[in-house]
Each structure stands twice: as structure tokens, then as C-alpha cells.
Amino acid sequence: MIGKWVPSWVLSVWYIMLLCRYFHNCSAFTLPMKEQSYFGTMVFLLDGNVVLNVGQPPRPYFLDVDTGSDLTWLQCDIPGAKNLPAPHHPYKPNNNLVNRNDPICASIQGTTPTDQCDYEIEYADHCSSYGVLVRDALQVKYTNGTSIAPPLVFGCGYDQKVSQSGRPPPYTDGIIGLGNGKSSILSQMRFNPECSRSLFKWARRRFSNPWK
């Protein structure tokens, strides 16, 4: 039987592996909307994409899944933005830009000549997004009815370009990156004290009685 105490770093690694396993092939299937976690989730599947609840109060955004990149980004509501058709109104930042001196900014490629942390990302099909990093609450719901909303960093894209191949872009509000880099939501959750405490409390209860 598994003991009542498990090192937090073991739980963190297990947590990342569990989420990656669930989302590794989710874009290849059409599934009904349901929770995809035994203990809690910030992401829900919807027709092969995911729903991410962002902000206070939380607002839903539909995201395409990319396991090969780290950064998660939403289309941004700022003057002059070049956004694509999407199911929801673009995300509106509220004085929550990430400063270029923030440690997470160093993990984003490219130079940042201003005080804000800009990003530029291009995918294999030559779609791209340009924008700025922001920090906002991403809601995590647990099966016992409680929830937390840790502040996590993601991109606010103001210039999206589609592939020149003629393939239509996905009808979503952005992309969720499930890579292992420092800027990924999974990595941020692993090192977020609020998420770690909640996961550790759940694991102690679950491992002490795995049949509940």
C-alpha cells in the first residue's frame, strides 16, 4: 500500500505526466464536454478543443491544443489588434502586463525593447501570433466543490497570421501549449505554491484511501 506521505516533487512530476497523458491526443478526437481529471481541472474538453476559464470573474475561452509548444495565448482586445474570427470576445487585459524583468520573460524568445514582455511564436504550419505576456487568474476546480484561481502567465495576442497553405485556422480563441518549458501553464502550476498545497492535500487523502 502507498504510504500516507509522498514527497511534493514526486507529486508534481506525477501531476504533469497525468495532464500530459490526458491531453496528448485530445485534438484528434471529438469528445463531449466533461471534466478530464480525477481530482480537479482548469481545462475541459469540447469537440476536440479545450475550455480555459480566465480572469475574475472567470470567462470561458476555447483553445486549440499544441503539445509541441509551451506558451498559451488568447486573442487580445486592444486597439488595432489583428484578430481572427473566434467564438468569444477577445481577452481584455487590465493593467496586468508582465514586466520584461520578470523571470518568466527570459524563457520567451526574442528581444523586448520596452518595459513589457513581448512574445512571437510561429508554428509548423506557419501560423503565428505576436503579442505581450500578461498575468491573470486561471480557475482550477476540484471534485469536492472547491476551487482556486492562481495567477499564471499567458500571451495576449494582438497580431495573428494564418497559414499560407489555404487551410482554415481553427475556430478558437487561442492555443494552449502543453510543453515542458518554463512558460507553459503546466510548469507554472508545478511551481505555484497554491497549486502545490492543494495537490498535496488531495494526494494525502487519495493515497491514504485509494478506493474513495
UniProtKB/TrEMBL annotation:
TM ranges: 6-24
User: Which GO terms label this protein's molecular function in UniProt?
Assistant: aspartic-type endopeptidase activity
**Peptidase A1 domain mapped to chain residues:** 48-212
Q: What biological-process terms (Gene Ontology) are attached?
A: proteolysis
Keyword ATP-binding among record annotations: no
- Record keyword Transcription regulation present: no
Q: Which residues form a coiled coil?
A: none
Q: Which terms are listed as keywords in the entry?
A: Membrane, Transmembrane, Transmembrane helix
Which protein family is it in? Belongs to the peptidase A1 family.
The protein depicted here goes by the name Peptidase A1 domain-containing protein
Question: What organism, scientifically named, is this protein from?
Answer: Solanum lycopersicum (Tomato)
